[in-house]
Amino acid sequence: MKHTLLALCCSAFCLTAFSQTSVKPTIIPASVISVLNTPPEIAIIPEPVSLTKGEGHFVLPENVAIHATVAADLKQAISFLQERLSQPTGSYVSTTTGSTATAQIRLILNEKENHLLGTEGYQLSVTPSHITIRANKPAGIFYGAQSLIQLFPKEIESKELVENIEWAIPCVEVTDYPRLGWRGLMFDVARHFFTKEEVKQYINAMVRYKYNILHLHLTDDEGWRIEIKGLPKLTEVGAWSVKKVGTFGDFIPPTADEPRNYGGFYTQDDIRELVKYAKERFVNIMPEIDVPGHSLATIASYPELSCTPGAENYKVRSGEKIMDWSRGAPPTALIDNTLCPANEKVYSFLDTVITQVAALFPFEYIHMGGDEAPFNFWEKNDAVKALMQREGLKDMHQVQGYFEKRVQKIVEAKGKKFIGWDEIMAGGLPTSAAVMNWRDVKYGKEAALQKREVVMSPAAYAYIDYMQADAITEPRVYASLRLSKAYEFDPIPAGVDPKYIKGGQANLWTEQVFTIRQAEYMTWPRGMAIAESVWSPVEKKNWPNFFARVEQHFKRLDVAETKYAPSVYDPIFKVSRTADRQLSIELSTEVPGLDIYYSFDNSFPDRFYPKYREKLTPPKDATMLKVITYRGKNPVGRMMNMPIEEMNKRAGKK
Ligand code: ACM
Q1: In whole angstroms, what is the distance from residue 411 CA to residue 365 CA?
Q2: Going by DSSP bridges, is the β-strand pair 105-109/417-421 parallel, antiparallel, or unpaired?
């Protein structure tokens, strides 16, 4: 979502249009609501393929023995369980090589493969006396351990000792395996830099939900984040901008005397450490080097890679406006942030970068971006014109296609597979290039129909940088994606052969995300919805049931001190005009069974205030509508202050 930035210049009308179309209000029968009001005892996310509840409970003793059939292969799962089970409980968790019968937790790699489980599936059995996790491969044991942890009381998430709790879990029989093999989260560490420790924190949160790919967006106009030997300016110059806060995209252009000390980068040792850390948690890191657009940090470092005179004066972007989106895609660049496709130095530069990236990241794919390249500087460039003539290229899409083909060759020469954003298809790239869909789902379908490998991350369902509720409470981004809409994500679009769909992912762009706490807020709970969409059987998806589990996970994340957004409890405002042009306000909630209380007198409503029952027309002199949601006697939503003027704007002319 890079064109958020256009967006920020966009009107309140635009914000409203998005925020009001993303949720289909659902009528929930009273019987379901009463079920929802009783928290589920078992709340695993993503929902397992099959789970049967048995009689009784297993209670964790003070001394716990873990027995693993092949301990060396299962060391990650063992140390994960040792840490997670001992820290909050104070139990002594050891491993035993003795007889299985004495161990309370048994981790068993199947000697004879169970085909149903594949490489990531598992079976989890909890009886009053012991716990068994079976799988074909270590990854399956690890995912079984994740589900096991979710069966314990929420206090198991504590990093400190919790006393006076019985660590009891219900007896269950679970068989579980993923719907798709690519379950990704993209973390944009270019717009804002996140430290190595923060990336680890993000990985720890994602593995709870059985994500297995962390896509790191390592380069953009705002920063180059990876050390490349022999190209020192990428990190001496390209990793640093001027610190700004507020609404990104409209920042005042920095002056020459403002310090360029905001940012950072990962050394090659840092990258190796992160790759290892992720791998130990069954996560592959996929690097993205975003070219030919989004390359201002590169050009600020090595201006000769641009074909525009004057690029020597370019600076890494600090959130000022550099792109005009008013005429749609492709955008018009106000300064040239593209690499020059007609310059051989660009390809030798990319060869150096890709050689080192390929050596650092064992994952089989390298993502080479390819999105939102503006053409206006290429169009007026003599070298590009000569290239077009020489190669018989008819338009700028073909020019980009020429560039992508050459980059694909470089990537493949390093023994890696090439993947890029869905724009890369426009220039006739060989079908060996995989596509990551981000625009309309139709581009993902088109890629699959061309028999390409496809990863689905369509913005309408999977862009977790979008606002989660109304723009009056959320940091401004040009579009909204509520939790219920993210939960509708189906990574396998109708009408395509599923064998081309490698999987799906959620993307966290960070123009408006300045801290790791905000990254967590944006990721959870929508990351749970996407995780369930890529892991669980589609026929098991059920919004009220999912949300009841999400609420249990909110409590777990509270204990874990991981931030999440409570925006799902915020009411949805829909405004219109009556026949006599009065403002009419309709309120609804995404969550079943909530009451909305309101005031027009500027005081803070509680449940003794008027309850919303039908459309409202504000009293003549009112300036503010304040609303809050309750479940029974308990407030669950945030106090929302909606100016009448804002609603009048959204409703259009009186
Ligand atoms: C993108 O959001 N431009 C991939």
Answers
A1: 9
A2: unpaired
* Closest atom of ligand 1 relative to the 459 alpha carbon: 2
Atom index in ligand 1 nearest the CA of residue 463 equals 2
Q: Token pair of 246, please?
A: 């507020």
Distance CA 145, CA 123 (A): 10
In the chain, the amino acid numbered 557 is L
Ligand 1 within 6 A of CB of 191: no
For residue 35, is pLDDT > 90?
no
Q: Which alpha helices (DSSP H) does 561-654 contain, by range?
A: 644-651
Across 91-95, 294-298, 521-525, least confident range: 91-95
Q: Ligand 1 center to residue 644 CA distance, Å? A: 34
Total residues belonging to the chain:
654
DSSP string for residues in 76-112: HHHHHHHHHHHHHH--EEEE--S-GGG-SEEEEE-SS
Instruction: Give the closest residue to 140 by CA, choosing from 59, 57, 70, 216.
Output: 70
Distance CA 208, CA 256 (A): 45
Give this prediction's pTM. Answer: 0.94
* 3-class secondary structure, 29: coil
The one-character DSSP state at 480 is B
Alpha helices for 414-469 (secondary structure H): 441-449, 459-462
Q: What tokens does 629 get?
A: 């949601």
Closest C-alpha among 57, 212, 65 to residue 140: 212
Distance 2 CA to ligand 1 centre (A): 5
The string of pLDDT tens digits covering residues 289-348 is: 999 999 999 999 999 999 999 999 999 999 999 999 999 888 999 999 999 999 999 999
Ligand 1 center–CA 1 separation, angstroms: 4
Q: What atom of ligand 1 comes closest to residue 438's alpha carbon?
A: 4
Q: Contact at 8 Å (CB) between 66 and 78?
A: yes
Per-residue pLDDT reduced to its tens digit, 612-639: 999 999 999 999 999 999 999 999 999 9
Closest CA to 507 of 124, 92, 211, 157: 211
| Domains of the chain from N-terminus onward | 50-176 (3.30.379.10), 180-536 (3.20.20.80), 570-651 (2.60.40)
Which atom in ligand 1 lies closest to the alpha carbon of residue 507?
2
Q: Whose CA is nearest to atom 1 of ligand 1?
A: 1
What tokens appear for 36 in the block? 């929802």
Q: How far is the CA of 459 from the centre of ligand 1 (A)?
A: 8
